[in-house]
Model the fold of this input.
Amino acid sequence: MEDHCFNQRVILVTLLLAIASSFVEGQGTRVGFYSTACPRAESIVRSTVQSHFRSDPTVAPGLLRMHFHDCFVQGCDASILIDGPNTEKTAPPNLLLRGYEVIDDAKTQLEAACPGVVSCADILALAARDSVVLTGGASWAVPTGRRDGRVSQASDAANLPGFRDSVDVQKQKFTAKGLNTQDLVALVGGHTIGTAACQFFRYRLYNFTTTGNGADPSISPAFVSQLQALCPQNGDGSRRIGLDTGSANRFDNSFFANLRDGKGILESDQKLWTDASTRTIVQRFLGIRGLLGLTFNVEFGRSMVKMSNIEVKTGTTGEIRAVCSKVN
Done:
């Protein structure tokens, strides 16, 4: 009898801890937030992303990037989606973001099914997860319950991580959002899908140094000539190159192998290997012998949950936008 009561207490404590941790970690968000108010919410977002992905696979990295850019400015509140002069989407780091039409499509369907219930911020968080799954990554449970912000200012985008940032600067920007160095490396690993325009890394290929071949010495010499052929010095700066050479459309850990091999496209990415404080984490994602390994797919999902809870608005804060591109 005592064993039975003890087991019941253990089960109850375990359940309470699980419930408590979901609220603590989520700051008021929780997995299954819409299970009663809009049971089809997640499936509607998923099918919408799938439909757009089938006709244009580039929406997957676009949506993942958009969620990241949203969370780092004003928190994960869909402020990136608001139209207008001097809104976040007009800031230089956000000018090439794509996938807005996917969010709008999902919102239209959700408003038809459950008017005024599902936030644009949650649609974006769910769409980012679904994009990773569609490109071969592992799924994760997305806590929901975010509300939409009413403020969107281009000037606030100045604190977004930049492609020239040192590891120290990247760490400062991530720490300011409650993310640690492992989160930093994992989330930058999202560059395993998607592309970058030549204009954002071509400076590394020509006149970067006054010695050798003139290129950034952290780039593999054989790779320099490949990149120069793709991005001539006076060529089209808008031409796009895969961020994960040889695997730009598949969500996997080959991005880290490319960093090890001197094939990082963005300067800020390659620095994760050249800086000793982050190299060890890259090596753990690669399963280097002698180090405790990390499973990229698993850790990416964990870090995404942390990121998706940055400065979220819940309860009565914010609003549920009727149209994602404008405040009510």
